[in-house]
C-alpha cells in the first residue's frame, strides 16, 4: 500500500483545505483572555447566521457524541423517544440507556427515513418529554424529512427536540428557529470540512429551562455551565484553540462563497454522484426522496469486490467506504460535502471506473 495521503471521499473526516491546516498552526493564546473572547464571540455570531437562530450556540471540545450524550443527560427527565433508522441512531438509543435514562427506540428499516407519521404516533402517547433524531444517517445515506417532522413536533410543545445534523449542517438550509428545533448538534469533520475534535450545539430557552430542573447533569457537558460561560464568550473547560482558529477561518470562507452558492454546489455534486452510481449499474440504497445531500450510499448490484476496489483506489491515492455495519460489502458510500468541487468527484469517479475495469 502507498503511504502517500489519500484524498478522502469517506463520510468523515473529509478533505481539509491547506489554509485551514495553516490556521491551526497559529500560536496559542490564553483561553480566558479578551483575545480569545473576541474570536469566540465572532464565531458564535457567524454560527447564528448560518443556523438561522437567535438561540444560544455553544462550542465543545469533543466529537458530536459528547453533546449528544450531554443532551440526554441534561434534557431527559421523564422518558425519551429515540428514532432509529441506522447504526448511529441505534447507538444514540444505546447511549440514552447507558446514561440511566428511560427510553424507547422507534425503528425504521435501514435505508428508510424516519417519517412524520412515526414521530406523531410515538409522541401522541404522552409518555415522552424529549426525543432524538439523526437528520442525515451516514450509515445508510438516508436524509429524513426534517421540515415535515418539525411541523409534527410543534404539536408537542412539552417535548424537547434533540436533533443531530452532524453530516448535513451547512450543506443545505436548516433554519433552526423557523423549524422550532430546541437543541441542534453537529460535528465539524463532515460538511464543515474541518479536522475532528470540535462540536457545536444549540440551546433554546425551553432547553435551558428543562436542564435547570434535571439533576445529575454531570459537569463537562452541563448545559447550564455552558450558558454561564457563554455570557463571557467562553467555554466551561479549556477549548481546543487550534480548532477554534480553524472554525473562525472556515466560517469566513463559507460566507465568502455565499450560503446559496454553497447549498447549490452541494446539490450539484450530490446529483453528479447519484447519476454516476446509477449509470454504472448500481442503485441508491435509499429511495429517491430521502437520498442524502452529503453522501451517496450505493447498492452493490454488480457484486463488485469492494474490499479489493477500495485497496486499488488506495494505491491511486483515494479513499471511499465499502459499506457500514450489517450492510458492509452490500453497499458503498461516497461522500460529497464540505469544500469538495465537481472536478474532484469527476476525477475520483473516473479512477473508480478504471479500477473496476481492471478487476
Helix count from the secondary structure assignment = 13
Strand content: 15-25%
Class per helix and strand makeup: alpha/beta
Work out the helicity level: 40-55%
Overall pLDDT: 97
Number of strand segments: 14
Low-confidence stretches: none
Order of helices and strands: EHHEHEHEHEEEHEHEEHHHHEEHEEH
Question: How far apart are the termini?
Answer: 17 Å
What does this entry look like structurally?
This protein has 359 residues and is of the alpha/beta class. The strands form four sheets. The chain has a seven-stranded mixed β-sheet with strand order 2-10-9-8-5-3-4, sandwiched between helices. Strands 11-12-14 form a three-stranded antiparallel β-sheet, covered by helices on one side. Strands 1-13 form a two-stranded parallel ribbon. The chain contains 13 helices and 14 strands. The mean pLDDT is 97. It is 41% helix and 15% strand. It has helices spanning 18-23, 34-51, 65-75, 87-98, 116-123, 146-153, 176-179, 205-212, 223-230, 241-257, 259-279, 306-315, 342-358, and strands at residues 7-8, 56-60, 80-84, 103-107, 130-134, 136-137, 142-143, 160-164, 183-187, 199-203, 283-284, 295-299, 318-319, 331-335.
